[in-house]
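Trying the structure run again after the queue cleared.
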Amino acid sequence: MKMANEVGFSLLEVLVTLSVLAILLSLSVPTMHSLLAKKNEEKILERMENDILYIQNQAIGSTKNFRIILQENKYIIVGPDQQSIIRDLPSNWTLDRRKLDSISYNENGTIRKAGTISLKTPNNTYRYVFPLGKGRGYLEKQ
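Done. Tokens:
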């Protein structure tokens, strides 16, 4: 019995279409992976900046001592009643704290101890500089 209306795609047309889609997807995966790593890096750096701003704001006009203690693969935000928040860095990141081991501010918003922190990620190296004065520091990409 012969069909009067044959509609549809042949097997060859479907295979060609699927192979073109597979090639396009295989080209986009490495780009997506590097974009995801970059966004993750930006998110972690932004969180660290917000934590530094937080302890500076808590210190202004207060006698309470908020500080950030730096370690090789994490930093710890310590409040006046010794409650702490631990912020782990990714395992392939390192925090060089030879020049500055903690961050804290006076009650007028100035840094107690000026210094520099080096932060190494798999793709980049950053320096967090804390000069004397009221600023909370700034981030430099190396």
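The domain at 12-141 is CATH 3.55.40 (minor pseudopilin epsh fold). Worth checking whether this holds up in the mutant runs.
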